Amino acid sequence: MVVILKSNYDKEQLDRLTEWLADMNVEPHFTYGANQTIMGLVGDTSKIDIDMLHALDIVEDVKRIAEPFKKANRKFHPEDTVIEIAPGVKIGGGNLMVMAGPCSIESEEQLCGIAEAVKKSGANVLRGGAFKPRTSPYAFQGMREDGMKLLIKAKKKVGIPVVTEIMDYQHLPLFEDVDIIQVGARNMQNFELLKHLGRQDKPILLKRGLSNTLEELLMSAEYIMSEGNEKVILCERGIRTFETATRNTLDISAVPMLHSMTHLPVVIDPSHATGKSMAVPSMSLAGVVAGADGLIIEVHNNPAKALCDGAQSLTPEQFDDLSKRISEVKKFAYRK
User: Fold this and answer.
1) Beta pairing, strands 27-32 & 37-42
2) For the chain, what is the mean pLDDT?
3) Which residues pair with 95 in a beta bridge?
């Protein structure tokens, strides 16, 4: 339920209203906009009399929300959420963030070299996988703890924020110096992991599961937000369809649809979506034009010899060219 307060509401009346709601085990969450204040009610609101709320002097309007996600709902929070990753690095509200780097960390030389290259080309954040979920148990699983150490070393040496994927909440101590914690598609509905991440004061990049609906993605975001962490970034990384020409099918329509449903930033992952480096530039630009708040792109200095997903990785030179095109295209980004 959403309660829209009048611009000149009386604070004493509001205090009495919030006390009454607390007695009913309903928690109010306030959003202060330029022209109005919105009070989102979380809890069992079925027993609340809407007509009674309408009759209060301080209330402008009352609406019930049918969607099961509350904190992530744009009706609760009409303004875009803007998340500051590091000083001068923001996402949401018109701030386009580009994350780039290798799918898997392989060595200090490889990681630092790519970090310097993508930063020079305009990337805001370095991506790099230390823990790698793979379909085959015999495939390269990442450098794990050693990879985390190299990632933090690259962060400090190059001076760039970092994002990497977590597999298990028991690994959280290793992520203390990580700027964005990524939840992969396979773990989108690992609810125990999401609850633990909800207790962290760090941005969470939440990838859509390969067979999940947008509402299910938002419900997973709700798990994180319900624990207190509202710094959630949603990521469209392609869904499984009948098409086999690409690794997955990139759902570009997810960008405007999610923006209509939620206030959270939305990112596109063209690398995992297509699985083909030749398609990454066009899909990146399509995502920007559709209004994406960010991109996460795989870059490798020698894709042919990459230990993981080389076929979908751009070279630093290709990424540099794409970055220039992104700068030109983002002026046409669509947001209604």
Assistant:
1) antiparallel
2) 92
3) 92
